[in-house]
Design a protein that fits this description.
Strand order of the largest sheet: 3-10-7-6-4-5
CATH architecture of the largest domain: Up-down Bundle
CATH topology of the largest domain: Dehydroquinate synthase-like, alpha domain
Strand content: 5-15%
Helix content: 40-55%
Largest sheet: 6 strands, parallel
CATH superfamily of the largest domain: Dehydroquinate synthase-like - alpha domain
Number of domains: 2
Structural class: alpha/beta
Number of strands: 10
Number of helices: 15
Bound molecules: nicotinamide-adenine-dinucleotide, zinc ion
Radius of gyration: 20 Å
Shape: globular
Amino acid sequence: MVIILSAARLKEPEETGSEGSLNIKPFGGMIMARFTLPRDLYHGKGALEALKTFTGKRAMICVGGGSMKRFGFLDRAISYLKEAGMEVEVFEGIEPDPSVDTVMRGAEAMAKFQPDWIIAMGGGSPIDAAKAMWIKYEYPQTTFEDMCKVFGLPKLRTKAHFCAISSTSGTATEVTAFSIITDYTKGIKFPIADFEITPDVAIVDPDLAETMPKKLVAHTGMDAMTHSVEAYVSTANCDFTDPLAIHAIEMIIKDLVPSYNGDMAARDRMHNAQCLAGMAFSNALLGIVHSMAHKTGAAFADYGAHIIHGAANAMYLPKVVAFNAKDPVAKKRYGVIADYMGLEGKNDDEKVAALIAYLRKMNDDLNIPHCIKNYGADSYPCEQGFVPEKVFLERVHDIAVNAIADACTGSNPRQPSVEEMEKLLKCCYYDTEVDF
Ligand SMILES: NC(=O)c1ccc[n+]([C@@H]2O[C@H](COP(=O)([O-])OP(=O)(O)OC[C@H]3O[C@@H](n4cnc5c(N)ncnc54)[C@H](O)[C@@H]3O)[C@@H](O)[C@H]2O)c1
Ligand SMILES: [Zn+2]
């Protein structure tokens, strides 16, 4: 059985062989699917100035550890909002892979300040944390567990509207219905998923992305690539999401590696490309690459590092393509992706092989390892990574169980058993071939 995640349509995995056989969730007594994006999206260099046009009384800006301050974007945002006549308070110090504790602290600060605008600025981490703070601010009785009920949030915007300004080119959380929060007591990332937390306004200003260090460009870029590929083969894909996913892929394969190597025009285009990928996956949902990334990311934190989200996706995506390609519809769709990428192949099997080879080459070009065994604590390839083999094998069963339960698994084109998920995770550890 598939878990129905949303008003977005989901095909039964076992029915994906015949296109068009849908399992549509009855919605308010009617049959419908939903496609939701922010009401406004300001884009292009200097788009940050859109903040000057906002109307409201109090804006709370949520930021991370300091990059937005260091590069002057925080001061600019404050001055634009003041110019718009608003009182401004800053909640800073949101850590990468934000915790439930941080969410609760931020919500308390909001309860004191009573903002009518929440302005989240930075990478996926501060924006995601601010989304969860927003829920708690609007509904103080809500627990983190309540928030994690997929597509089960109450109506927001009774107290504040939400604007997201992304400074990394990957998560696209500025346009998505998702927020990823880590429960460090369990060592697990939980996705909060609901169109209620799709921001009201997104600002996609490439100036903010130009300050990213190389490694961040690589990881966030492969996150965006994974979003597009997973959205395109998701069982919830539709006519509205397909063109976004395909165009994002076309842009990413052209611009990601040059952006990594310092081409700033390519860097600017990548900021749009990742956003298109976000529009696609927010409505088509994702697949098991993300389920596995969510459940391995913090699983070895006691050994001194995280497997960074984008790097995890980059390593697991080629393996999952091989696994999913056993589903005939997914195989055909990977073939279409390969065609748009201009890859050689006489039939879909050859195209799938070419796609896998291309993705692996991208990892090489971006200095991302191919497997967990070779993933160093600094995220670079090395002989023996930070996750010891013995520890991985001790934990792999539980990780597999958790990955299957992840909200992203329901829309994957092929539903793995726990045993298959364990085997897949082992392939991702050792970089062995997926032949099942
Ligand atoms: N909500 C979604 O739809 C979604 C999708 C994918 C991933 N995620 C989540 O997002 C998080 C990752 O977000 P991220 O990859 O954007 O990174 P991040 O927000 O965790 O930031 C990583 C580091 O980059 C720095 N940084 C950010 N922007 C910078 C810039 N322009 N210049 C210099 N330094 C900068 C930050 O200060 C931080 O130290 C993970 O928790 C992941 O699970 C969310
Ligand atoms: Zn992602």
